[in-house]
């Protein structure tokens, strides 16, 4: 199943994002569960994340989200996990 993880950073947390970016990207590579991903932007500045996970269960998506270095660093103000169906692309 595909799950969209939509996370919004806490206000003023760009430096925290930058400090944890390498660990976040390594986690994506190591886990092998990410189909697509990229930052959400506000006025061209990173302010959140959109990650499409390819997992067996919603619980697996939650476990991935909980262990993301960004989440563990306290970057996010909110995180939503929503089952997603790819139609185009």
Strand line-up across the major sheet: 2-3-1-4
Strands, count: 4
Strand content: 35-45%
- In terms of structural class, how would the helical and strand content be classed? alpha+beta
Global outline: globular
CATH architecture: 2-Layer Sandwich
Question: What number is the mean pLDDT?
Answer: 97
Annotate the secondary structure layout.
Elements: E1 2-9, H1 14-31, E2 34-42, E3 45-54, H2 58-67, H3 69-72, E4 76-84
Antiparallel strand pairs: 1-3, 1-4, 2-3
Description of the molecule:
The protein is of the alpha+beta class. It has one domain (2-84): 2-Layer Sandwich (Alpha-Beta Plaits). It has helices spanning 14-31, 58-67, 69-72, and strands at 2-9, 34-42, 45-54, 76-84. It has a four-stranded antiparallel beta sheet, covered by helices on one side. The two termini are 16 Å apart.
Summarize the structure.
By secondary structure, the chain is α+β, with helices and mostly antiparallel strands. It has a single domain (2-84), classed as Alpha-Beta Plaits. The protein has helices spanning 14-31, 58-67, 69-72, and strands at 2-9, 34-42, 45-54, 76-84.
Relevant terms:
Alpha-Beta Plaits; 89 residues; alpha+beta; four-stranded antiparallel beta sheet; 36% helix
């Amino acid at each position: 199943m595909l799950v969209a993880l939509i996370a919004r950073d806490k206000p003023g947390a760009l430096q925290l994002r930058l400090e944890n970016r390498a660990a976040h990207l390594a986690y994506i590579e190591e886990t092998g569960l990410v189909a697509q991903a990229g930052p959400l932007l506000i006025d061209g500045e990173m302010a959140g994340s959109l990650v499409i996970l390819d997992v067996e269960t919603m619980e697996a998506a939650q476990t991935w989200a909980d262990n993301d270095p960004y989440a563990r660093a306290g970057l996010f103000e909110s995180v939503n996990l929503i089952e997603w169906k790819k139609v185009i692309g």
